[in-house]
Amino acid sequence: MKRLLKFWIWLFVMPTFTGCYNKSEERSDILKVYNWADYIGENVLEDFQEYYKEQTGKDIRIVYQTFDINEIMLTKIEKGHEDFDVVCPSEYIIERMLNKKLLLPIDTNFQNSPNYMKQVAPFIKKQINKLGTINDPATRYAVCYMWGTTGLLYNKQYVSEEDMSTWGALWDKRFSGRILMKDSYRDAYGTALLYANRNRLLAGEASVSELMNDYSPAAMDTVEKYLKLLKPNVAGWEADFGKEMMTKGKAWINLTWSGDAQWAIEEAALVGIDLGYCVPEEGSNVWYDGWVIPKYAGNPKAASYFINFICRPDIALRNMQENGYVSSIAAPEIMEACVDSTLEKAVDVSYFFGPGNEHVKLRNTQYPDRSVVAHCEMIRDFGEHTVDVLEIWSRTKGDNLNSGIVILILLVIAGMSGWQIHRMLKAARYKKAQRQRRRKAQMQKKK
């Protein structure tokens, strides 16, 4: 989801996938994919071409394009009638596309291939179906790709896990000027309402879902009040540079998404910085990105095959390893690959992988404990209230970047190329170390 576009990686790693095609080509020989940047595993597209040829006897050329804002993607389809075959929007955009009748059903009948979509966790299917109706479930039109939570990434040298147990840390003057907020009006809206109503939550007088999706005038007034109280503590509102700054120890707290947190934790460890991630006790947003076939798709058949291929467990695992987020596929081999015996704490993931998995050593950034998930809910589409919420967000943010943070951001951006190259060089060693840890853990189990 929400990743930095790295043009040079696509330039060198995937030279055969372009953003255009010859109009004289048969459209049935083309698959147009529109995805978040940096959100698919290495060589997965090439491997799909082989899979498609095996299944259908036909060659397929992939036209691959990326986006970094949901609404831009939606505008191209809704207003521009772009003929993308398969796209990967977030849950609230899926809901909006369903309401606007912009999606086609996904075909689940394949010539020779199993239906890998059946391995999507029932927990995930239940969440996705909230976007549709009983008579027309959303899972007919959308298959979850990756999912995660919104929480607090923090530097353990300066901030304790106890501090992070409540959203109140964002309003704590002790951390003034050391906080980076994700530039996400949806997450900020829900966070403010949860913290403002923390006593009602504890007393059972309100639910996380009710609060995060409350667009009443009173709720909006509360959100604006609390966000403006928060503003003096915030060093900056960031779209993607927050995790970079956390890895450099330049900020102490970052409201962010779990996948970005996992990436930052791993990168920071390489330079001796110890970061942690926590979902506060009041609750939070649990989000989902999913594959859908737009109404104007030129090749819905190939799109269905692509979605099925992406759900194959080995492919799902490769995509996870590439982007740090968590696949919706609940296959045993995925859990086994993610187990880390070096972790001190285990988590209850029986809600995802099924009974018998109540005590598994998995990273809480990737698989939150059942107790955490119980206090997380999906933020639905703001619908007609979107403009009002955006106005609150605009009035809140204003110009909140002081000169020091601007200089730091420019330095970070200037060093991004070198940092990404460094990351690529480290990636192979890191993945090798992961494999060695897994083999060692398996050997210990056998003993």
Overview of this protein structure:
The structure is a single chain. The chain is of the alpha/beta class. The chain has 3 domains: 7-147 and 288-327, D-Maltodextrin-Binding Protein, domain 2; 148-286 and 374-406, 3-Layer(aba) Sandwich (D-Maltodextrin-Binding Protein, domain 2); 415-447. Helix content is 43%, strand content 15%. The chain is built from 19 helices and 12 strands. The chain has helices at residues 7-13, 44-56, 70-78, 91-99, 122-128, 185-196, 198-202, 208-212, 217-230, 242-247, 258-270, 300-310, 313-323, 332-338, 350-353, 370-373, 386-397, 403-414, 416-446; strands spanning 30-36, 61-67, 86-87, 103-104, 142-155, 179-182, 234-238, 253-257, 275-278, 284-294, 326-327, 376-377. Strands 4, 5, 6, 7, 8, 9, 10, 11 and 12 form a 9-stranded mixed β-sheet that branches. Strand 1 (30-36), helix 2 and strand 2 (61-67) form a beta-alpha-beta unit. The longest helix has 31 residues, at 416-446. It starts with 6 loop residues before the first helix and ends with a helix.
Topology (elements, then pairings):
Elements: H1 7-13, E1 30-36, H2 44-56, E2 61-67, H3 70-78, E3 86-87, H4 91-99, E4 103-104, H5 122-128, E5 142-155, E6 179-182, H6 185-196, H7 198-202, H8 208-212, H9 217-230, E7 234-238, H10 242-247, E8 253-257, H11 258-270, E9 275-278, E10 284-294, H12 300-310, H13 313-323, E11 326-327, H14 332-338, H15 350-353, H16 370-373, E12 376-377, H17 386-397, H18 403-414, H19 416-446
Helix pairs in contact: 2-12, 6-9, 9-17
